[in-house]
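Methods, example record. To illustrate the input and output format used throughout this study, we show the complete record for Chaperone SurA. The sequence lines were provided to the predictor; the line carrying structure tokens was produced by it.
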Amino acid sequence: MWNKTLLSLAAACSFAAATVNAQPVAMDKVAVIVNEGVILQSDIDTAMKTLRANNADNPQALPSADILREQVIEKLVIDTLQQQEAERIGVRIDDNRLNEAIADIAASNNQSVEQLTQSVAKEGLTYATFREQVRKEIAASEARNALVRSRINILPAEVDNLAELLAEETNATVQYNISHIQLRFSDTEDRAELEKQANELVAELEAGADFANMAYTYSKGPRALEGGDWGWMRKEEMPTIFADQIKLQNKGSIIGPFRSGVGFHILKIDDVKGLETVAVTEVNARHILIKPTVILSDEGVLRELSNITERIESGDATFGEMAQQYSQDPGSAAKDGELGFQTPDLYVPEFKHQVETLPAGQISEPFKTVHGWHIVEVMERREVDRTDSALKNRAYGILFNRKFNEEASAWVQELRASAFVEEVTDSDDES
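The corresponding predicted structure is encoded as:
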């Protein structure tokens, strides 16, 4: 979220462009070369002035001018490198998204857009220059997010372990309504046959068989005559063998069969109280991805995707055939372009917008993401009860944020280490 600090930084990084014509000799001087780009002396001077102005009421003194200049230069170098990465991978921020971002900046400062425009003018900045700086900041942020996200690997076991720790925090209030079937060992019965019977019962239950009827018929447990119903209990009130099996399952889950010293057990969670419930919309979509190259321009890609769409809609070819032949996303191309049921949040913003808003069965217009140009078709949407995943989702989010921050720092360091950065001295100018 944009705030006053970011607004000031945007002003600091952009002010030079608005004042170059006023003082061309003193201000329009290259101070630092960053790969193929430059940082002007005006950028550095204005950033330092802005920081001092923002710190005027802060009792904490700023460092010396030399140290402050060094820190400002480093910040501007990092910003420039990230903007260069955004250009390299083709991030484009359209005017609609830019307008939304500027509205957010105004709202975070308790201003209208008109009031924000006046604030920008007081900083000595034209509104057009400010808009373009915000556009660059968003593009740099999206490039960082896309490139860092691809470096993150979260193992299912990591999610499960953290989710269980989080579950322990909520177990004091969570209650489960459970039912139970017990198949008891006997001296004459083959235990392998008993396990086979238990697996067959689970298969029938998962296919929709009535649990109470199954308990009446097969269970040798203490609540068999109540249809296996144990009623409402917290985990701490359950037999340990039950509590050990109940982790993050949701209402309707069948658990088992699992073995104890007396036989095999099957549990059903009839209901849950006190656990966060989550219902989400999952989308099954398919897409075709084509990436621009030195030879194939954006315009060429658009023509090619438009021709593919025409062939599909005319019945000359199927979406799957076109995906297998043309899509440059090998994972989905082998599956006729299908991505499977996913929550839209897993996709990059432009793709997420398409799968959330596109009517089912309609092929989108070509659109661009950091991965290239796409056409997408939503095949089906479904509402999914993700109560069992509430803590897992929370755990995944915590792990993702941790790893993102770690990887983002490493990515920036690698970007900085591989960059050509040189400060231009007065002697360089003279020579």
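Annotations derived from this record:
Residues 1-27 have pLDDT under 50 and may be disordered.
Residues 203 and 347 are 35 Å apart (CA to CA).
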